[in-house]
Write a structure and sequence with these properties.
- This protein has about 160 residues and is α/β, with parallel strands linked by helices.
- It has a domain of about 70 residues: Ribosomal Protein L15, Chain: K, domain 2, CATH 3.100.10.
- Strands 1-3-5 form a 3-stranded parallel sheet. A 3-stranded parallel sheet has the order 2-4-6.
- It starts with a helix and ends in a 12-residue tail after the last strand.
- It contains 4 helices and 6 strands.
């Protein structure tokens, strides 16, 4: 292989940063000739020059805002979080198709981590679809069945300390 052909092949060992991207390390406090000697760019005296800055959120001894505000609510670690999908969003599927979580993810209607899919009633549907989802609202089921479609509920994903029922 010629040199020009070999240079076109991307190999990790031949990678290098573009010219000017890598700058030498900026070392401060190394003599007056460097321009960054003596106070090393920190000015003179004071708390900021001594390297003892207070933690984030410190308000000079005043009770910090995060401690003045009341605590509210809690996070339910056993909550089942569904990815919501509206009935109107299902218009992108062809009539007679089977719509499950995989199809919804491929259509980019469901993203991220969720325990399952819940169909909500916002929007209208004018085609017959077969839905395989974990949860559905009563009015969404009504709209889908009115359009001639069917809904198959998948079992609720198990999450929590108790054995699956």
């Amino acid at each position: 292989m010629s040199d020009s052909q070999q240079k076109r092949i991307p190999i990790l060992s031949r990678l290098s940063p573009p010219p000017g991207a890598v700058q030498p390390k900026h070392r401060v406090g190394r003599g007056i000739g460097s321009g960054w000697g003596k106070t090393a760019g920190k000015g003179q005296k004071g708390q900021k020059a001594r390297g003892t800055m207070k933690r984030l959120g410190f308000q000079g001894g005043q009770m910090p805002l995060q401690r003045r505000l009341p605590k509210t609510g809690f996070n339910n670690i056993f909550a089942t979080i569904y990815a919501p999908v509206n009935v109107g969003d299902l218009e992108i599927f062809e009539a007679g198709s089977v719509v499950d979580e995989a199809a919804l993810r491929q259509a980019r209607l469901v993203r991220g981590h969720a325990a399952g899919v819940k169909v909500l009633a916002s929007g209208e549907l004018d085609r017959k679809l077969t839905l395989k989802v974990n949860a559905i609202s009563a009015s969404a089921r009504e709209k889908i069945e009115k359009a001639g479609g069917t809904v198959e509920l998948l079992p609720r994903p198990h999450k929590g300390p108790r054995a699956a029922e």
